[in-house]
């Protein structure tokens, strides 16, 4: 499987080594995106109507902007693209790992505790999906960024978490 961070592409093995490699890249890109002025501006625009320090309002506003402006787009066959959050904004969407990386960058830019959660459907041994979780009031809330329908705080149906990476 190949992974790309904007222009750089490298081969990674299948299975858990590939998952760890993708999570490492997502973590690095989320941290970089959190300090990117354009990503921070995009995030601050989203929360403009929220009272100061109202993390719940901020999360709802950022997710609302996600659902209004970004869409899920599958990667090319056989390639797992992991891209900078700004590229995801400019492209208008991407797959679950890039959307999760953008939400993590937005959250980190606002001081939220954020982590990635990988998992799969029952009976599948290697994770096939990733989503971010945000801590609000000491409670970790999953945010399904690749669906416009699932409310904040709910995992997708039949999703079984199998690993978490805190940023």
Structural write-up:
The protein has 167 residues and is of the alpha/beta class. It has five helices and nine strands; from the N terminus they run E-E-H-H-H-E-E-H-E-H-E-E-E-E. The chain has helices spanning 16-34, 37-46, 55-69, 85-91, 96-109, and strands at residues 2-5, 8-11, 71-72, 79-81, 93-94, 114-120, 129-136, 139-142, 160-166. A four-stranded antiparallel beta sheet has the order 8-7-6-9, covered by helices on one side. Strands 2-1-4 form a three-stranded mixed beta sheet, with no helix packed on it. The longest helix has 19 residues, at 16-34.
The beta-strand count equals 9
C-alpha geometry: globular
Distance between the termini: 24 Å
Oligomer: single chain
CATH topology: C8orf32 fold
Order of helices and strands: EEHHHEEHEHEEEE
Q: Summarize the biggest pleated sheet.
A: 4 strands, antiparallel
Instruction: Report the C-alpha radius of gyration, rounded.
Output: 15 Å
Overall average pLDDT: 90
Alpha-beta classification: alpha/beta
Return residue spans where pLDDT drops below 50 for at least 5 consecutive residues. 1-12
Helix content: 25-40%
List the helices and strands and how they pair.
Elements: E1 2-5, E2 8-11, H1 16-34, H2 37-46, H3 55-69, E3 71-72, E4 79-81, H4 85-91, E5 93-94, H5 96-109, E6 114-120, E7 129-136, E8 139-142, E9 160-166
Parallel strand pairs: 1-4, 3-5
Antiparallel strand pairs: 1-2, 6-7, 6-9, 7-8
Helix pairs in contact: 1-5, 2-5, 4-5
